[in-house]
Each structure stands twice: as structure tokens, then as C-alpha cells.
Design brief:
alpha+beta; 3 domains; three-stranded antiparallel β-sheet; 9 strands
């Protein structure tokens, strides 16, 4: 329910389009985002609706410190993790004073047993365009669960917010389970799924268990965040291979992400001449040190020859072909009929 978020905007006049956008955004906020938004409103005290909308669409610019719901708890965390006071000094240090001093220096707002802080200034470089402004947060996938205590449901976003905590490791799931008043996702029912990849359709219908859905969503978020340890064009390759293999299932997408080395690939967005030269160097056709030959070399033609030699197919995000390496399945069942690259 978005009423509690609208209550934070008392005194501000909203147009119909602004109200409707905020209502959709509030309804799609995760438990973590709701805490961040409440803290942001307290920190920024916005005087206009535009700032509110920018804040709601830039929740990644705010962080949570779970378990630090007052100055004493905050101070204990600061003394242990920020300043790492010695054992001899700790008996003489006042945690509450440390918490107050930390907030005086770094700012923040206590919300729901957490400290909310602003980590970056709001981006105001682009004019607002509500019809094109996403109403979901900056997540790869969101799952909405409900419980007997909370039938309306709570959104959970992945990858996890991954922020600091006092006590146990915090994450979106921890906050959601608290809001749902349950101990595990297995006690919940599934209501909805929102995924960044449009190819992954009807994800909710693919699962009988909320626990398994959440487990796979967590894995999806982790892979999204890691992106092959910074491998260039990782997301483009992942989506290209998904299209090549006609993948519409979340579990199959997870397995394909683990098998990307089994596919040859050229991204659509790449400079073909530069790509071809890099490929030629990797293949031993050219030496990186021979600048003269590099200047004369037709990299685009070499890239085209590479695509033809490997039998690549075109997709919306690039060109790819299975290279014959065996595929391994951890999350899904091996398909009875492989895609076009397997024929």
C-alpha cells in the first residue's frame, strides 16, 4: 500500500500524472526501498514534487545500515567496524556519543531500525519525462511474495542491496521476510515477478515453490552483478545466447549464463574493425607489437570471416554460435531439442 509514502509528501501539490507515476512507483518499491525513501524524504526535505520523483527513481543513491536504529547501536557498529577501537579503549568509549558524532559528520536518518544515508547527489542532468521513467527500482529481477500476515505482498529485489549491517548479514530478503512476518520464503505464496530480460516470460508459472523461485532470483541477481567478473559484453552475450537457444525460462537462463564459454560471439554494438584486430591477435594471426600490419589489417573483414567460419546466427543483441563444447545444467533440465546451434 502506497498511502504511507504519500503521507511523507504532505504539503506538496501533485498533478494527476505525477500522482499516477508515484503511485505505480510506490506500489513497486521493495521493503528496502521504502525505508530508503522515508529516510531520503527526512534528509532532503524536498520543496517540490520534481525532487520527490527524482529521489524515488534514484534509490540506488541511498544506503541502509540495518540494525543501527538508534545512536547507541550505530555507535557500537562505528567503533567496531569504522574506527576499530582497541579492546583497552572500548570500556572508556561511549557508543551513543559515537553514534551522534558519526551522524553529525556523515548525516543520516533513522528509519525502521536502520540508518539511511545519502551516498550520491541526485542526478538532475536530464529533464524528467514521466512516460519514459521506469517505475521499478534498479534491479535485475524482482519477486513479490505474500503471507498470511501480509496478503497484500512485498516486493524483493535482486541483486541484493549488499550494504553493511549490525548483527546478521542484511539483504532485501531479510527486510521482506520481516515485513511478511515469516522466517523463510517457503512460508510465502508467489504473487508476481518482474525481470529486466523481456525474453523471460511468465516466470511465475515456471515455479511451484516460492523458496525455489527466490533461490533462483538470488542467483540471477548475483550473476547480473558479477557479469563474469567484469567480462566485456557479458550481458549482451548472455542475451544473445538466450535468443539463439530460444530461452524463456529463468532456470534455463541461469544455466546458459554458466555456459557462455561454449559459444562464439560478436556483439552488435562493437566496432567490427577493432574487434577483428583483437581477434586476429588472440588467434595468433597478428602480433600486437606490429603496429604497421595492424594499421593495414582489415579487422571488419576478419570479423566477418570469423562469423562465417563458426556459423554464427544473428540476434537482436549480437551474433553467436555454439562452439561444440559440452553444456552443463545445474538449475534446469537439459532441453530435449537443442536450439539451432546444436543441430
Amino acid at each position: 500500500m502506497s498511502r504511507e509514502q504519500f503521507d511523507l509528501l504532505a504539503g506538496l501539490e501533485l498533478t494527476k500524472s505525477q500522482y499516477e507515476w508515484l503511485e505505480r512507483r510506490f506500489d513497486h518499491m521493495t521493503a528496502a526501498e521504502k525505508l530508503k525513501f522515508a529516510g531520503a524524504m527526512d534528509i532532503l526535505r524536498p520543496a517540490d514534487v520534481e525532487t520527490v520523483i527524482r529521489t524515488a527513481s534514484q534509490m540506488e543513491y541511498f544506503s541502509l545500515l540495518l540494525g543501527a536504529g538508534d545512536d547507541k547501536a550505530l555507535g557500537q557498529y562505528v567503533l567496531e567496524h569504522y574506527h576499530m577501537a582497541s579492546r583497552k579503549a572500548r570500556p572508556f568509549l561511549d557508543p551513543e556519543q559515537a553514534g551522534r558524532q558519526f551522524r553529525a559528520e556523515h548525516g543520516g536518518s533513522f528509519q525502521g531500525g536502520c540508518l539511511v544515508q545519502q551516498t550520491r547527489e541526485l542526478d538532475i542532468s536530464e529533464p524528467l519525462s514521466l512516460p519514459h521513467l521506469p517505475t521499478a527500482g534498479d534491479y535485475a529481477i524482482c519477486v513479490k511474495l505474500a503471507s498470511r500476515s501480509n496478503t497484500e505482498g512485498v516486493w524483493i529485489g535482486f541483486p541484493d542491496c549488499g550494504e553493511s549491517t549490525v548483527g546478521e548479514v542484511p539483504d532485501e530478503l531479510t527486510l521482506a521476510l520481516e515485513a511478511l512476518q515469516v522466517k523463510s520464503a517457503g512460508e510465502c505464496i508467489m504473487l508476481d515477478v518482474d525481470c529486466y530480460f523481456p525474453r523471460l516470460e511468465n516466470v511465475l508459472e515456471q515455479y511451484d515453490s516460492a523458496a525455489e523461485l527466490v533461490q533462483h532470483a538470488m542467483a540471477f541477481g548475483y550473476i547480473w552483478e558479477e557479469q563474469g567478473q567484469g567480462e566485456p559484453y557479458f550481458l549482451e552475450k548472455w542475451q544473445t545466447v538466450m535468443e539463439l537457444e530460444d530461452c524463456h525460462r529463468l532456470d534455463y537462463a541461469l544455466d546458459l549464463s554458466q555456459n557462455l564459454s561454449c559459444y562464439e560471439f560478436i556483439p552488435r554494438s562493437v566496432d567490427l574493425d577493432a574487434f577483428g584486430k583483437e581477434k586476429a591477435i588472440a588467434d595468433g594471426v597478428l602480433r600486437k607489437s606490429d603496429s604497421f600490419l595492424l594499421e593495414c589489417f582489415d579487422g571488419a573483414s576478419y570479423a566477418g570471416a570469423y562469423a562465417g567460419r563458426t556459423g554464427m546466427s544473428a540476434t537482436g543483441h549480437g551474433y553467436a554460435a555454439w562452439n561444440g563444447k559440452p553444456l552443463f545444467y545445474e538449475y534446469s533440465e537439459p532441453p530435449q531439442e537443442q536450439g539451432q546451434t546444436m543441430e
